[in-house]
Amino acid sequence: MTSPAIMTDNSKLNPPLRRRSGRILLRLPLIIGSADPDPAADWENVETIMVSLHGGMVRTHLNLRVGAIMEIRMRGKAQVAHARVAWTSAEKTPQGIELGFEIIDQQGFWEIKFPPDSC
């Protein structure tokens, strides 16, 4: 006879992660590259997969490491911002890796009114 499984409440040890703002699935055309002033630095045309008030996610072939500062530009517009790479996916697909970033210097970069956060 097996004993019943004992379930423990680890919620106090590992509280759920709270996001600073909601996410919106939205395709916006961007140009991204390293913020390094090297004129030979690579740039890539990408589209967002998801955006939030504070950042976004794209698929890219660029090799940007977590913590790296990148520049993002809206294609066809004058908006430019700097962002910190927050995470990258481990799996590489033909479309590249997924890369999440946090905008660090341009509040309102997306020019979108985001819905209020749910509590």
3D architecture notes:
- The chain has a 6-stranded antiparallel barrel.
- The N terminus is likely disordered.
- The protein contains no helices and 7 strands.
- It starts with 22 loop residues before the first strand and ends in a 16-residue tail after the last strand.
- The chain is globular, with a radius of gyration of 18 Å.
- With 119 residues, it is an all-beta fold.
- The chain has a domain of 78 residues: Thrombin, subunit H (Beta Barrel).
- Strand 2 and strand 3 form a beta hairpin.
Short summary of the structure?
The protein has 119 residues and is mainly β. The chain has strands at residues 23-25, 29-34, 43-52, 55-60, 69-74, 80-88, 97-103.
Radius of gyration: 18 Å
Largest sheet: 6 strands, antiparallel, barrel
Task: Please identify, by name, the CATH architecture of one domain.
Answer: Beta Barrel
Taken as a percent bin, the fraction of beta residues is: 35-45%
* DSSP strand count: 7
Structural class, judged by helices and strands?
A: mainly beta
**Which residues form runs of ≥5 with pLDDT under 50?**
1-16
Sequence of secondary-structure elements: EEEEEEE
Give the N-terminus to C-terminus distance in angstroms.
44 Å
Number of helices: 0
Q: Give the rounded overall mean pLDDT.
A: 84
Global morphology? globular
Strand order of the largest sheet: 2-3-4-7-6-5
Q: At the first level of CATH, what is the class of one domain?
A: Mainly Beta
Examine the coordinates and then state which fold CATH places here, giving the name of the CATH topology of one domain: Thrombin, subunit H
What fraction, in percent, of the residue positions are helical? under 10%
The CATH superfamily of one domain turns out to be predicted glycosyltransferase like domains
